[in-house]
Amino acid sequence: MEIRVRYFASLRERVGRAEEALDVPAGTTAGEVWRQATGQPLPANVLVAVNMEYTGPEREVRAGDEVAFFPPVTGG
């Protein structure tokens, strides 16, 4: 099934792209999407959103979903 993956801020620079379409098997979690797209485990401090709603990396994605990864938010 095809999903859209988006990377924001420093993660965009880290992976070298802002977004991509990815074909994943049914039952894939948001955390597994990161691993499939980057070849690395999802860093502990990365925020995950599916269809513009923050969620945990254990959330399963569905065909047509948008999965977004954000670096941790800091402020001062």
Structure description:
With 76 residues, the chain is of the alpha+beta class. It has helices at 10-15, 30-38; strands spanning 2-7, 19-23, 47-50, 53-55, 66-70. Strands 2-1-5-3-4 form a 5-stranded mixed β-sheet. A hairpin with a 2-residue loop joins strand 3 (47-50) and strand 4. The termini are far apart.
Number of strand segments: 5
Overall pLDDT metric: 94
Give the name of the CATH architecture: Roll
- Mind telling me the CATH superfamily name? Beta-grasp domain
Overall structural domain count: 1
Q: What is the H/E order? A: EHEHEEE
Distance between the termini: 41 Å
The main β sheet shows up as: 5 strands, mixed
